[in-house]
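User: Hey, my collaborator sent me this sequence without any context and asked if I could get a structure. I don't really work with proteins. Can you help?
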Amino acid sequence: MRLLVYEFTCAEASGSASWHAEGWAMLSALLSDFEAVEGVGVVTLLTPGCRGDHAAWLAAHPGVDVWPAETLALAEALRRVDAALIIAPETDGILEERCRLVEAAGRLLVGPEAAAVALTADKWAVARLWRAHGVPTPWPTVLADASGPPAFPAVLKPRDGAGSIRTFLVHGSSDWASLAVSLADSLGHMIFQPYVRGMPASVAFLVGVGGRTPLLPAEQCLSADGRFRYLGGRLPLPPNLAERAIALASRAIACVSGLRGYVGVDLVLGAAADGSEDVAIEINPRLTTSYVGLRQLAEANLAAALWAAGRGDRISPIAWRPGVVSFAANGTQESGGRRVGGDRRPDDGGESWP
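Assistant: No problem. I've predicted the 3D structure and written it out in structure-token form, which is a compact way to encode the shape of the chain:
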């Protein structure tokens, strides 16, 4: 079976340098792993610049079939494959649109259904769903409907944003006044939420017919400049925090239908040891950068399990190696599980979407 692995920044030459670095980290990890999955012929779409930048890697992976993105549109590529795995930001419907192309082509979508992508991309809609099911989350207010500025401190972000794009920590009225002017044209599409202190964390799941299989929970390392830029992660969490993270993340995705394959959940783990201050932040209906760390600790090929989940097969139990893995947003590893990120900020000041 021929599988197209599509990553937005590598296939469309879109986004900042930091976007591309994160996109390539996910894409190259997946391509390498799927190359070893029996019965799967893996292909991808790459721009000329991406092919040139990563020529050495591509030469070392002859089992990966590379198609030129400048002459082959996604819709045409889908006619030549049996299945597709899509990695793209939810912003402006980018991920949803490409998932609908896969569905319209009658190909197997190795990931959440387009309808589930549309729902989870809308942070206001997800919050309403979570409230109905008793999942704790900072309650968002749509700025277009607000009668006044938010209570402070608050987090301002797009209603359909991905990662840290146009995301701001608003400390007080002066910050708010400045942002209200600079973002005047887009405020109607933004929300604010109460700022919650705690440890940013994430849990990825493989979702298939056999249920939801949690992978190792990770700590997220974010910038300390009030922009929440994703700098990397560290996994696994200590057992007590991992148990809390899995419990809350499981509740967060249980109420969403149409999820399949790899799904990530972002959380904040509060100070209370019993987890009573933990909150769910958002669902990522796609592969996330945590994959580059998870694959290092998985005893078997993690892509094989992802393939099984996406096809609707039962997922075999996943065994994990002992140890701790730290990874930067661009996929690079740091030895000994040393924490990455912390208070460091991206060198290029770019935005991050995973």
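In plain terms: The chain has a mean pLDDT of 91. You can pass these tokens on to your collaborator as they are.
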